[in-house]
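hey can u check if this looks right to u? its 378 residues, i copy pasted from the old doc so theres a chance i mangled smth
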Amino acid sequence: MNNFIFSRKNIQITHGNGVHLYDTDGTEYLDLGASYACVPAGHNHPHVLSEIQNQLEKITYIQGSYPISIRDDFYNKLVEISPGDVQNIWLSNSGTEANEAAIKFARHATQRSQIISTKQAFHGRTMGSLSATWKPTYKKGFEPLIPEVDFVTFGDVESLTDSISENTAAVIVEPIQGEGGVNLPPPNYLQEVRKITEEVGAAMILDEIQTGLGRTGSFWNCNHTNVVPDILTSAKGLANGLPIGVTLCKDWIAENPGNHGSTFSGGPVVCAAGNATIDVILNENLPENASKIGSYLLKELKETIGTRTRDIRGSGLLIGIEVKRGSGSILGNLARDHGILALPAGKTVVRILPPLTLDRSHADDFISAMDSLPEDIL
């Protein structure tokens, strides 16, 4: 049976190591996508692999209602790194599940129904999180989705003020929109969202699935702004490639979350991977590296190809290069002629989301490759 959902690439990967992937022909690729930020510690990090293997020899699965030390250790680590008092933890298996839980928890805790999201947002593909996702092509054929989800302009405080009401359960927002084009909000936008939601008693849900885990120079992007949301979601790279999602909540949400559940919530092997990944991110100072290499990349890309593109923007190692024609030809050229794998973010943005272990020599390879691209595809 053929895979009928994912479009297949013409590269068959066999293994990975650090920031590199290798195909069946032995070709080495610089991985600047990290499978959508899922391996912040790099492929096959020895500490992560060792902790996974150790746990596999003990028990692969036990349902979440049974206490187990590896899960308790993971809970404690998440509490230690959580922003402010967002310290109640719900574990799941993906980012879309983390956001699905966040929406459910907010509705139940507030006993309200309206959810406000932003235009160009991406929050997942299950029915609730899909309802809060902007792109119409993701929704086509699945309507009707959940009711009373409204969209406001990202970065526009007045748009939010006009839409929010006493019936608003939550405002869900990404600190930086990833899938939507690597869009950065104006300064103080998140602070204003925090203020407005507090005024009406709505929950602020911060989707840090792409911006968290050190990617923008601090463990959470919200640390840059001193904003503490009511709910924070994380996933993707939290277990360095194993399926995971986490919904972190303040007490007032956790006290009345409703009846929610998940069979595989907090599996021991995934928790072992999560523990090890957090250790690597902190012990190897990966947020600092993301800030340093990301700043270098932004500066050099702007100086080298800035006049040939529409815009180059980002924070840390989340960078978008908006080109004048389309991202598809550029991604193909990078892979075929330079051994570099990157990602799209819409039709005209090349997105850079590498492992946080990327070093300056890797950055220089990418800058050189972008500089050598033919003018007619930039």
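The radius of gyration is 20 Å.
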